[in-house]
């Protein structure tokens, strides 16, 4: 029976590769990178899921995730999903009032906060204008050390309409033993996912996916099917190294994370500041960690510059097997040709779509001869059951000429 959820895909890969490295975090400081094995990721996720289910009952709702790039991010996301909730990524670098507004609009009752970011997280909720915000519980995710297992989570009371937010001062944290959660969870058995219906997995709230009022949109895209399809298309294996290029607030991050973890491959995470240093980033990706799969926007790729692109990224001996460009207009064949060494063998894909249709709606592999013969790169073939149409001003489908692209399908769901 094919896997129905992202967590099913990871569980299947972990059962095949329990002792392979699943996640690697390189801070770029010269210290030994931290890593987690597949069995450790699964155990961490189960621990968090058990704690969520026992203390918060988030089924069918959403849980905020307030954290920066970190080794444990995939385990936290997986744990939230396993509790049958959607996760709402919250950016610590965003203005506090913006974060508070997103939480309010998403109706968040629970938020998981990385422990060393608690002080940064709490000040916005002291504003009198945010008294109506309902946040019942904060989870302090203890990542003071890269222990293979989270031994404890501290829970603290939040704010409500009847109790205005006053920050986290004076709140007495309650230590919750996750070993007890494991025992009670095993007695209850695994949570059934039958009858889930159209349940969201990921809440998007950046500018590229908002309704006219600027409210966040909650999606239940077919990520598990999309990831499975891309695994086949990119011929993924356990030997691959996938770079987490996108921030968590950008939906391609879901593809990055689960494309790796569903294949038994290694997910590489670096601090966001490293993504702003093209030379160092190229060294980390292609010299130190031999990245094989890179899904990026053309803007991020261009930051490397022609020299680094031809020397390190798309060189004759580059480790990069797959370069998937999406999120923006694909560079012209002439540009792509100027970046690639003539002996480079990297497969280049143009992936196109919008958040409302599972992140990517179509895909096109750019044949090497086309780099020398065409002026633009096609959008490619629709993925899964996606329907792509071009309509004119009269809303009629056309096969020639110019018009507006319409994308849809029978299995796409959008909640606003």
Put simply, the count of helices is 12
> How many domains make up the 3D coordinates?
2
Number of strands: 20
- Overall structural class, as computed from helix and strand content, comes to alpha/beta
Relative strand content: 15-25%
Q: What's the rounded overall pLDDT mean?
A: 76
The major beta sheet can be summarized as: 6 strands, mixed
Strand order of the largest sheet: 4-3-5-6-7-8
- Portion in helices: 25-40%
The CATH class assignment of the largest domain is: Alpha Beta
Shape: globular
- Unreliable stretches covering 5 or more consecutive residues: 125-137, 142-199, 205-214
First and last CA, distance? 32 Å
Using only C-alpha atoms, the radius of gyration works out to 22 Å
CATH topology of the largest domain: Rossmann fold
The CATH architecture designation of the largest domain is: 3-Layer(aba) Sandwich
InterPro entries: AMP-dep_synth/lig_dom, ANL_N_sf, Beta-ala_Activ/Resist
Protein name: Aminoadipate-semialdehyde dehydrogenase
Pfam families: AMP-binding
GO biological process, one term: amino acid activation for nonribosomal peptide biosynthetic process
Descriptive terms for the model:
416 residues; alpha/beta; Rossmann fold; five-stranded mixed beta sheet; 12 helices; globular; Beta-ala_Activ/Resist; Aminoadipate-semialdehyde dehydrogenase
Write a concise synopsis of the structure shown.
It comes from Poecilia reticulata. The protein has 416 residues and is α/β, with parallel strands linked by helices. 28% of the residues lie in helices and 21% in strands.
């Amino acid at each position: 029976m094919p896997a129905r959820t992202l967590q099913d895909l990871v569980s299947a890969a972990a059962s095949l590769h329990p002792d392979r490295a699943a996640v690697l975090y390189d801070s770029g400081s010269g210290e030994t990178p931290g890593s987690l094995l597949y069995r450790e990721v699964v155990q961490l996720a189960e621990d968090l899921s058990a704690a969520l289910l026992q203390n918060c009952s988030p089924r069918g709702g959403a849980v905020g995730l307030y954290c920066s790039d970190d080794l444990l991010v995939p385990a936290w996301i997986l744990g939230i999903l396993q509790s049958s909730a959607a996760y709402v990524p919250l950016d610590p670098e965003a203005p506090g009032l913006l974060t508070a507004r997103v939480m309010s609009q998403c109706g968040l009752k629970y938020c998981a906060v990385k422990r060393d970011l608690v002080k940064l997280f709490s000040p916005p909720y002291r504003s009198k204008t945010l008294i109506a915000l309902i946040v019942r519980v904060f989870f302090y995710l203890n990542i003071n050390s890269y222990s293979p297992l989270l031994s404890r989570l501290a829970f603290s009371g939040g704010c409500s309409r009847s109790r205005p937010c006053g920050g986290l001062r004076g709140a007495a944290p309650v230590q919750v033993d996750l070993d007890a959660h494991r025992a009670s969870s095993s007695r209850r058995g695994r949570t059934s996912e039958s009858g889930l219906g159209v349940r969201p997995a990921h809440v998007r709230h950046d500018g590229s996916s908002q309704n006219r009022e600027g409210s966040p949109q909650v999606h239940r895209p077919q990520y598990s099917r999309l990831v499975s399809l891309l695994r086949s298309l990119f011929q993924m294996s356990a030997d691959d190294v996938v770079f987490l290029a996108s921030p968590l607030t950008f939906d391609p991050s879901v593809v990055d994370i689960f494309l790796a973890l569903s294949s038994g491959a290694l997910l590489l995470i670096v601090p966001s500041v490293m993504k702003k240093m093209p030379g160092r980033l190229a060294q980390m990706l292609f010299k130190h960690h031999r990245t094989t799969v890179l899904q990026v926007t053309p803007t991020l790729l261009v930051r490397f510059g022609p020299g680094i692109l031809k020397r390190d990224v798309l060189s004759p001996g580059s480790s990069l097997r797959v370069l998937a460009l999406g999120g923006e207009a694909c560079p012209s064949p002439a540009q792509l040709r100027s970046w690639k060494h003539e002996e480079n063998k990297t497969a280049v894909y143009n992936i196109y779509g919008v958040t409302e249709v599972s992140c990517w709606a179509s895909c096109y592999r750019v044949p090497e001869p086309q780099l020398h013969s065409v002026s633009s790169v096609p959008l490619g073939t629709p993925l899964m059951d996606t329907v792509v149409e071009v309509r004119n001003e009269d809303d009629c489908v056309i096969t020639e000429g110019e018009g507006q692209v319409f994308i849809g399908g029978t299995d796409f769901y959008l909640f606003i």
